[in-house]
Write a structure and sequence with these properties.
CATH topology: Cytosolic phospholipase A2 catalytic domain
CATH class: Alpha Beta
Shape: globular
Largest sheet: 8 strands, mixed
Number of domains: 1
Oligomer: single chain
Radius of gyration: 21 Å
Distance between the termini: 16 Å
Order of helices and strands: EHEHHHHEEHHEEHHEHHHHEHEEH
Length: 421
């Protein structure tokens, strides 16, 4: 049976499915762990060849989330019908490459290295970004945004235009000047100020000879949580009456199924207080304190939280928050693990452990309502809902939606090979 790695269009089904992944540097290990679990549940339902890209109409990602989105949606350089990476391979990718993207030293040499980096960050970015450029280009090659197996949405911020620039498969299909190399977009959206250098690249419309230049940095300055950006791109497609999307009102959010994955927030009791912050000047706000740059940390977290709040309120207002929206965010990450560039093996392994613990952490009664379709963890004779249970439920919703679309397209069963008994 022939493999089909494209997601059937939502116009053939009941739902519009969105996956959103926050920015957060090496903390991308956390959403990557959740994605591996979700994909494993999809494979239990539909066979070992099932991939995340088969089930989501849009995969949105900012910064490290943009790189993950590209890995999930870009075609493999060796087989254009398969995505670059299985979800289970993303965490190993971070463990292997993060120490070279964000090099660090330990022991006595570590102190000298930290002093050197402190001086360096006063006059330029902390890291030169060369290895990130290399590994991203090796991974994605010359793949263009329009060539992804499902739609991607990746925010950046253009420092020359002083405004957000959103790259998406939708825009790339309609404008050759927005059809950039996916590697350039990923490098750009990851270029956090003070951490990695801004990225310059150009696009050319070979039909007209027109060109466009981009001078971009971290998309987190625009939307560290890109959920609303993705929904906005879909809304625009509906407004334009795209055949890909159902004929419905653009603001009919009852049809959305959203999985939004955060990269973690620090413990509440270690956040800076007003007495301390009141004494800071420019070096206080931009200097490294508590393993991070305070101004960037607060800006990115505020961006994520505001989007989180808006989306939750929107879904509650239309009465479907317990059914079609899943936001995963750990708000108790130890301060030692907060830094987006701490790439020691101890920290990376610690992030994996944080994600695994969160996956099976019991949720409060107010978080989500259970039903018979939700897998739970037994405790003291009671059924306890976990994120693992919620992801299993969403995997079933996604699988059913895909089967419905394929049936409406004239297929009798999902075209995913090697279906397991």
């Amino acid at each position: 049976m022939e493999n089909n790695y494209a997601c059937p269009p939502p116009s053939k089904g009941n739902l519009i499915t969105v996956l959103s992944i926050d920015g957060g540097g090496v903390k991308g290990v956390i959403p990557a762990t959740f994605l591996a679990f979700l994909e494993s549940k999809l494979q239990e339902l539909d066979g070992s060849s099932a991939r995340i890209a088969n089930y989501f109409d849009v995969i949105a990602g900012t910064s490290t989330g943009g790189l993950i989105a590209a890995m999930l949606a870009a075609p493999s350089l060796s087989n254009a019908k398969q995505p670059c990476y299985e979800a289970k391979d993303i965490v190993p990718f971070y463990l292997e490459h993060s120490p070279r993207i964000f090099p660090c030293r330990t022991g006595i040499l570590g102190w000298f290295f930290k002093i050197l980096q402190t001086v360096k960050v006063m006059i330029g970015p902390k890291y030169d970004g060369k290895y990130l450029h290399k590994v991203t280009s090796d991974l994605l090659g010359g793949t263009r945004v329009e060539e992804t197996l499902t739609n991607v949405v990746i925010p950046t911020f253009d420092v020359k235009c002083v405004k957000p620039t959103i790259f998406s498969t939708f825009k790339a299909r309609s404008s050759a000047l927005m059809n950039a190399r996916l590697a350039d977009v990923c490098i750009g959206t990851s270029a956090a100020p003070t951490v990695l250098p801004a990225h310059y690249f150009e696009t050319v419309d070979h039909r007209t000879g027109a060109s466009r230049s981009f001078n971009v940095i971290d998309g987190g300055l625009a939307a560290n949580n890109p959920t609303l950006v993705a929904m906005g791109e879909i809304t625009e497609q509906m407004r334009q009456k795209s055949k890909e999307f159902p004929e419905t009102k653009p603001l009919d959010y009852h049809r959305y199924l959203v999985v939004s994955l955060g990269t973690g927030l620090p413990e509440q009791d270690i956040k800076f207080d007003a007495c301390r912050v009141a004494k800071w000047g420019i070096f206080g706000w931009l200097g490294r304190r508590e393993n991070t740059v305070p101004l960037l940390q607060m800006f990115m977290h505020a961006s994520s939280d505001m989007t989180d709040s808006y989306v939750a309120d929107l879904f509650k207002a239309i009465g479907c928050s317990d059914q079609l929206l899943l936001r995963v965010q750990d708000r108790n990450i130890p301060i030692a693990a907060v830094a987006a560039d701490l790439s020691t093996e101890k920290n990376l392994r610690g992030l994996v452990k944080i994600a695994e613990n969160l996956l099976h952490k019991p949720l409060g009664e107010d978080d989500y309502k259970t039903d018979d379709r939700v897998e739970t963890t037994p405790r003291d004779g009671r059924a306890i809902l976990t994120y693992a249970g919620m992801l299993a439920r969403f995997a079933k919703l996604l699988s059913d939606e895909r089967k419905l679309r394929l049936q409406n397209m004239g297929h009798c069963m999902p075209v995913i090979a090697n279906r397991e008994a």
